[in-house]
Amino acid sequence: MEELSLYMSLYKQGMLTKRELEEIVFQFILKNPHRFYMRRLGKERCIDYLCWLYPKLSAAIDAYKDTGSSFEAYLASLLFWSTHEFFSSEMEHVITEKACWEARAGEIVCEEEQEYLAEKTHPFRNKTGKKLKANEIMVLLLKSYFFVSEDFLERIAPVVGIKAEKLMTMIEELKKKREQHDEGIRTLKIRIHSQYYRCIAFEKRLQVMDDDSPNYEKTKDVLERGRKRLANMKKRLAGLRVDASNRQVAETLCIPKGTVDSILYTIKKKFGVK
């Protein structure tokens, strides 16, 4: 390893570029993994490790100062601690990936098949056989714009007597009015999704930790705070309305808000909704 100090000296004298020195060090480590605590790494993982190490090694070369310890000793110390960090990072990724898969596997594998209905029922008819009128369907459609697909609009257009393109224009108009509000809902859902898997990952970490480990209590505390944060975000999401307001529906249909209120009241009464 003495030649590494020589190369560092040449670099300090400006006879080698930093890139040339990095290449020399990389090749030396790759050819001599047994000297750098990398016996557990195969060739492919060794290359992965070196790619992960590059930013640290580059910074270490800039930070090195000859104050008594040789560059070889300095490099050996860096590699000793960085291999531990690399293995810890790999383990954390494995635990997180396993946790996320276990959380989703049940939903994917155990998804229930839809029941086949021999007799199809009219989607806009209640148990007594009363149908919704076209204006009632339109109000419900716009109220529920957040969940409406283009395919559904194509199928509902003949029922309400309005072209699908016109219905889509109305939906887009509502979306523009509620753009900021809906973006907030989407962002919150993404945060809830991330927080959910973060909590699972910390749960899995606790399972592989010793109860008397220095990091056990710290991880447990982080998990508890994460659960509280998740509960608060879910509560906040539940308080956000995803349907359009009666006033927004009225403005889109160019009718008074009172008319929308009246139509919704009639629908509730017709279907026995309190």
Fraction of residues in helix: over 70%
Poorly predicted residue ranges: 104-122
Please count the helical segments. 11
Rg, Å, rounded: 32 Å
> If you average the pLDDT, what whole number results?
77
* Biggest sheet layout: none
What structural class do helix, strand and pairing data support?
mainly alpha
* 3D shape: elongated
Number of domains: 3
The rounded distance between the terminal residues' Cα atoms is 82 Å
Give the quaternary arrangement of the chains: single chain
The helix/strand series, from N terminus to C terminus, equals HHHHHHHHHHH
- Please provide the count of β strands: 0
Q: Percent of residues in beta strands? A: under 5%
Commentary on this structure:
Helices cover 71% and strands 0% of the residues. With 274 residues, it is mainly α. The chain has three domains: 88 residues; 72 residues, no CATH class; 55 residues. About 7% of the residues have low confidence.
Feature tags:
single chain; 274 residues; mainly alpha; 3 domains; elongated
